Amino acid sequence: MSVSCGLECVLCLGCSRWAWKRLTYVGAYDSEAWPPAAAEDVEPIPRACRAVLAVYEEDLANPRYAPAGGYRMDPSDVVKRVPYDQIPDGCCPPYLIYVDRQHKEVILAVRGLNLIRESDYKVLLDNRLGQQMFDGGFVHHGLLQAATWLLNHEGDTLRDLLSKLGPEYKLVFAGHSLGSGIAALMTIIVVNHRNQFGGIPRNQIRCYAIAPARCMSLNLAVKYADVINSVILQDDFLPRTPTPLEHIFGSIFCLPCFLFLVCLRDTFIPEKKKLRDPRRLYAPGRMYHIVERKFCRCGRYPPVVRTAIPIEGRFEHIVLSCSATSDHGIIWIEHEAQKALDLLKDTEPKTPPPQQKMDRKQSFEQEHKAALEKAVSLNIPHAVAVTEESSEATITAPSECQQGATSGGGSKSSGRANWDQLVEKLFSKNESGNLVLKKDINIDS
């Protein structure tokens, strides 16, 4: 009797401790050791949010959902807007292409998940653990198919715009939630096939994944951290494909059971086991975390933006928060990002900073190399060494770009690229038909 009572006490204490740690964990803990971001690094984030918000508008000249301060976009510079009725079922969410002449950017923005559209769920749920190998890692199968479809339809438009506007223009992909995963995977494809865009340098390609979906394995998330930026607001629950058990219980018992299963899975899987699983999907690239609330304190505080390229603890904790839904909303993310940017500009010193702009860029490059080295030292599966990454980042010569453009999978006369064939260069199949990793690929050869 006494033994059973003792076991019950131990069980109660253990459950109470788990519940206390789970209920008191806030999103601010994930980035508390990260350094603050500079104003010039935060400046493109609210602009990217507004570009994604513009996808929801039928007419930018007469907006219905304009954020505070307006969209700050010229409606005449919207090159193309593609709604649901112009997209085949289950291929991709709506998107737009916009030329930002003030900041010299060509932007392709993809909207997030529409809760009442079955076609968006087809893209999100088209994935199994370890189904899609790609570029030496794993990615979300449905999002990769959507990214390939989008490039097949708009790759020529983007290429023509870049050649017409000049080499000083950047190519920017932006997306929210479901669209963020599509934008991130499009960025990887374009970075590996820059010859299809006139040899655009790698440092002129950018992606802003707002409230990002978990869409790529850890080695890819770190490898492309110099071009992909993920933006997370406080306690946002990063979307991912549920496991079959979570999906069944979530469908039967709704959200509480789903969150309970996710929290149990998050608690009892050791960090080392997560890192050793090459199939596990993560949020992509460099992380920008907007923090505005503190534990046991009411109200919102002036937002602070922290940034890093984390390896361990990469937003793997599930935060139980009543604000998780609003923190995932694109409107609120834009509002807080703009507010954080205004605060950073107000607090900037009027005298020249001790660390100049070029020094900050070099520090970002050094941080990226350090993250790559740490991934290798932690034995992350298929992690890329610094030497391989630096050789891949070199700018392709114009003559090589022209040769690649004619032999890139389209006809030589039209120069049109078949992105399905180009994507196949990043993975291969063995004799039995199973996907296998393709190492040491030279895309431009």
From TrEMBL:
This is Calmodulin-binding heat-shock protein. Residues 108-243 form the Fungal lipase-type domain. Residues 389-416 are annotated as: Disordered. Pfam families: Lipase3_N (PF03893), Lipase_3 (PF01764). Coiled coil: none annotated. GO terms for biological process: lipid catabolic process. InterPro entries: AB_hydrolase_fold, Fungal_lipase-type, Mono/diacylglycerol_lipase_N. Residues 392-405 have a biased composition (Polar residues). Residues 7-70 form the Mono-/di-acylglycerol lipase N-terminal domain. Transmembrane segments: none annotated. It comes from the Eukaryota.
